Prior knowledge:
By secondary structure, chain A is an all-alpha fold.
Amino acid sequence: MAVKSTMSNQQKLVQAFCDALGVSSQTVNDELQYNTIREWDSTGHMVLVSELETVFNVMLDTDDIIDMSSVAKAKTILAKYGVSL
Amino acid sequence: MTNPTNLTYCAEFDSLFQHQVFGLPALEKRAALMPVFNALHQHHLACSQTYARLTHGQPLSFRTPDELPYLAVRLFKHYSLSSVPDNEVFRVLQSSGTTSQSPAKVLLDKATSARQSKALVKIMQNFLGKQRLPMLIIDSPSVVKNKALSARAAGIQGMAFFGRQPVYALNEDMSLNSVAIEAFQRQYHAGPVLVFGFTFMVWEYFVRALQIAKQRLSMTNATLIHSGGWKTLVDKQVDNPSFKQKVSEVLGIERVHNFYGMAEQVGTVFVECEHGFLHAPSLAEILIRCPYTLKLQKMGQSGLVQVLSSIPSSYPGYSLLTEDLGRILGEDDCLCGRKGKYFEILGRLPKTELRGCSDTMGAG
Lengths: 85, 364
């Protein structure tokens, strides 16, 4: 955890998914979709949103939350806020 | 998902969803909605034997919403109605109705559940804006911990999309969590916040509890959203105007929006506007029927509420005759500027008066 500042944004993203959903980093790839694993349900989704906001210091709006249906989509949305991935 | 009736429906729904959620005047709304309802009718005919039996002898398509078949909402308390294979059901929503011992069961697949969230967000954005607000939930945190999804927990989860850093205002025993409430107020007093809860709980465990404790809050930047029905409050002779007055007096909140919606049609909610009227969004329709003949009532006449939602494809509940009484007050001309019908709910039908069930339930 202490090395977070030296992590790339890609690594931070994977770590945020792992921390928020309680899954292993192997599970987190671009194709992973909302509601396809037990851990990423609507409750997990809100924890994830809050984790991404903290890690990347952004504020997501309600459209972003609805659109964030996969890891790939999460990247697109973060890019919109200037997070390069 | 490869089912052709489902594909047609999905295409029609996507096209309806492009429209502004309160932007369609009557004729345009009908033109946008009917292809969706007809597609849902055909989809459920093909995928639900029960629906096919109940609507036996009806045509394949209809011109207007009032021609469409409807099911009594009570059916969902007695049967698990499904239009998808068992392995596609990923969530069962349970609501314990106030008048029934058996909870209603609503079977959701992923697509229906996703549309519910999308619709709720689109409708609520019209009242709250797109930004998420610090959120005070008038409930105890234990309500969402139970994995069997109650309608109450589902309602809170749905609204949680609009909040950030949610704070629960009540303890496990429903007493006021004064520490949490004070901290929330201190932290967010400067900007807009969202307060959400079920009507009865907001009244009993928040407004009344504060009153008894001789406390007043000054949440002038808050918007209160509440739902869940007035039955218990009507018994206490609390109506919407007196509710709002006390909310203003005790909480200091002036922006208050009630919403009406069925657990059987999560997503398409009817939200109260700034002028105190409930509004039908483009994604849903409301009709009023005579409780005795089930014929369509004229505007202004009270009767049984029928709700139609563009969302449910996993269960045949897109057109439901409720046990609520209501009255349509106008269409397209509310002073708030929103298009569509606006209406009020007048209470529930006394149990003994419910007639015509056999008509809606068919011979099956």
